[in-house]
Design goal:
The chain is an alpha/beta fold and about 290 residues long. The chain has a single domain, classed as Homocysteine-binding-like domain (TIM Barrel, Alpha-Beta Barrel). It is about 45% helix and about 15% strand. It has twelve helices and eleven strands. It has a seven-stranded parallel β-sheet with strand order 1-2-3-4-7-8-11. Helix 5 packs across helix 7 and helix 7 packs across helix 8.
């Protein structure tokens, strides 16, 4: 299935500045129609999965921004219903489309770049207390599956996987890696072994990593789990969490995608700095090669 690309860069192209702690989740409150417009654009480009604007959204984060708990919970559910409404607009044209509720790691909500480091200094109980209510809220809004993404640390996956099995909604779980290791420095083989026994996790792989890291990671994932793969790297540019800017040249090349599919990827798309034009080219290439 063809996934969408980055939400933040598509919103930035539309003129939105996403430099505050809530990042794209701020627009769930301030400009929900803009999020819907991006979902619509990616579907039009050939994406078969819309990933919701909940990556950096959480009840505590919204409360810090001055919202009540009820308002925060409503916005978290709204991230799913926005994508569902856009999907349903397009129903009847013969194309299957899904909505994946984005579940970013604990570090994403800290808004300090620690999702690219892991090892947050909090225990498993704190991670469970953070993730479980959020997963339950998102599931209550009726997504087709969870996109548990940019996980930097197998210790966080060890908390997430049992929660996903407890809830029972299908999910993919993708790590962010640096070469053969998680961002926290653990061997990918060990990280994917955490996912292998899960009944809810139907696919696993990597996202928000350099494009050249994807195929080796997929090969490790398939050997460790036997599950279908997930591949949606970023542009390969560098991210400065202090200035919230990307630098360098893109290395995202759709010509790499058939190799990802050959390595087991069943879900293919793009992450940060990968836009609708890239997804259109990806969809065209994989349709032709298929």
């Amino acid at each position: 299935m063809i996934l969408d690309g980055g939400l933040s860069n598509a919103l930035a192209v539309r003129g939105h500045v996403l430099s505050d702690e809530l990042w794209t989740a701020r627009l769930l409150r301030d400009a929900p129609d803009e999020i819907a417009a991006v979902h619509r654009t990616y579907y039009a480009a050939g994406a078969e999965v819309a990933t919701t604007a909940s990556y950096q959204a959480s009840v505590p984060g919204f409360e810090r921004a001055g919202l009540s708990r009820h308002e925060a919970e409503t916005l978290l559910r709204r991230s799913v219903t926005l994508a569902r409404e856009v999907r349903d607009e397009l129903a009847g044209d013969g194309h299957r489309r899904l909505v994946a509720a984005s579940v970013g790691p604990y570090g994403a909500v800290l808004a300090d770049g620690s999702e690219y480091r892991g090892r947050y200094g909090v225990g498993a109980a704190a991670l469970r207390d953070f993730h479980l209510p959020r997963l339950e809220l998102l599931a209550s809004a009726g997504p087709d599956l969870f996109a548990v993404e940019t996980v930097p640390d197998l210790e966080e996956a060890e908390v997430l996987v049992p929660l996903l099995d407890e809830i029972g909604l299908p999910a993919w779980l993708s790590y962010s890696c640096a070469g053969p290791q998680t961002r926290a420095g653990q061997p990918l083989a060990d990280a994917f072994a955490v996912v292998a026994p899960s009944t809810a996790v139907v696919a696993t792989g990597v996202n928000c990593c350099a494009p050249d890291d994807v195929r080796p990671a997929l090969e490790v994932a398939r050997a460790a789990t036997g599950k279908p793969g997930v591949a949606y790297p970023n542009s390969g540019q560098g991210w400065d969490s202090r200035t919230h800017t990307w630098s360098g040249d893109t290395s995202y090349d759709v010509a790499l995608a058939p190799g990802w599919v050959a390595a087991g990827a069943a879900y293919v798309g793009g992450c940060c700095q990968v836009g609708p034009a890239d997804i259109a080219a990806l969809a065209k290439l994989l349709s032709r090669s298929g």
